[in-house]
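Standup notes
- DV: blocked on the single-chain target, sequence here:
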Amino acid sequence: MIKFFLYISLSLLAFNFSFAKNIDIQENIKIGFVCELEKKIIKNSENNYKTFLAKDLDDKNLDKFEIDAKQPEKLLISGLSLFLSQNKKLEVKIVNKDIVLFKAFDEGKNYSESGIINRKSGELVHEITIGLKGDNPEKNISFYSCT
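- DV (later): unblocked, structure below
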């Protein structure tokens, strides 16, 4: 549990750092993962950052999560969500030997998806935020273990 909060903190720190330099692709990679959902944290009108284990959810594992990065600024994410698979305009793209960090917004900047994967440990955190412009945005934060 503590490691998940460490990764959330790390991802927030990395996102804050990344806004200074939104694109930093240091390596060319084309890798695929199979990821198992471990848990999900939901914040909405019914749940205030309530944690659900994978066994309590109907959500599926990721059978084909792929990352394709080419220097200096190409990063394609597929298999995580339809939004990211179809979005070629990621606003944050960070790739190095240890992590891949990405963030994308819809055209109205009211919906965002972001993620960070530790390439060494295979831990993936995927965050979806709905209603960014509203008073009470909803968040879904999923934690996966990838191989």
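- Follow-up: The chain has one domain: 2-146.
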